[in-house]
Automatic annotation (TrEMBL):
Consists of three domains, a large central CORE domain and two small peripheral domains, NMPbind and LID, which undergo movements during catalysis. The LID domain closes over the site of phosphoryl transfer upon ATP binding. Assembling and dissambling the active center during each catalytic cycle provides an effective means to prevent ATP hydrolysis. Some bacteria have evolved a zinc-coordinating structure that stabilizes the LID domain. Zn(2+) binds at residues 133, 136, 153, 156. It comes from Furfurilactobacillus curtus. Its EC number is 2.7.4.3. Pathway: Purine metabolism; AMP biosynthesis via salvage pathway; AMP from ADP: step 1/1. This is Adenylate kinase. It is an enzyme of class 2 (transferase). Monomer. It is found in: Cytoplasm. It holds the Pfam family ADK_lid. The keyword Kinase applies. The gene is adk.
Length: 222
């Protein structure tokens, strides 16, 4: 089943987990922008080299280079055969318009945008629950992955834990605010195109995936 998808959701919404389940069930290639940037630079493609020149100077990669890297990836045989699941792209309306043009040029269309929706207060709790063993570096989550014995590292037995600045609630709130500001125009854009499907992500993983599967079955039959 070849499906052309975009996966959206704020940090901590469970996007990565659902992407893996979609890949396993439907064999739709998961295309993370981070992964394809690294791949394009390692393979020294034209766009990969262009991106590296900006990154090496500590500059943001401009949209036209990002779009070029995505275009390269969407032209590869596995995508042409099985479709794609974009994760982390598009990040703004100009990139969304560029994607529309790429698909039109290759006589393809977007089947669905899956938006995993979780209340930001829940995400703050999820993301700020992470802590790390200072001795061996093992990572835990107070909600989803606590140590087997409270206060004791499963790996090395240490009782010395810390929390990274990035995982502290105030930092997490700021990061979410930036992502909400960036995502909202895209949600509106795809809502306007009639391809947006918002899924309640505040449930068990399998329940969320059941709703995702219902959407994918529906669009594959239409």
């Amino acid at each position: 089943m070849a499906l052309n998808l975009i996966l959206m959701g704020l940090p901590g919404a469970g996007k990565g987990t659902q992407a893996q389940k979609i890949d396993d069930e439907y064999q739709v290639p998961h295309i993370s922008t981070g992964d394809i940037f690294r791949e394009a630079m390692a393979n020294e493609t034209e766009m990969g080299l262009a991106a590296k020149a900006y990154i090496d100077k500590g500059e943001l990669v401009p949209d036209e280079v990002t779009n070029g890297i995505v275009r390269e990836r969407l032209s590869q045989p596995d995508v042409l055969k099985n479709g794609f699941m974009l994760d982390g792209y598009p990040r703004n309306l100009d990139q969304a318009a560029a994607l529309d043009q790429m698909l039109a040029d290759s006589k393809r269309h977007l089947d669905a945008v899956i938006n995993i929706d979780v209340d930001s207060a829940v995400l703050v709790d999820r993301l700020s629950a992470r802590f790390i063993c200072r001795v061996c570096g093992a990572t835990y989550n107070r909600i989803s992955n606590p140590p087997k014995v409270e206060g004791t590292c499963d790996v090395c037995g240490s009782h010395d834990f810390y929390q990274r600045d990035d995982d502290k609630p105030e930092t997490v709130k700021n990061r979410l605010a930036v992502n909400i500001k960036m995502n909202t125009p895209l949600v509106d854009y795809y809502q306007g195109q009639g391809v947006l499907h918002t899924i309640n992500g505040q449930r068990k993983i399998d329940d969320v995936f059941e709703d995702v599967s219902t959407v994918l079955q529906s669009v594959s039959e239409s």
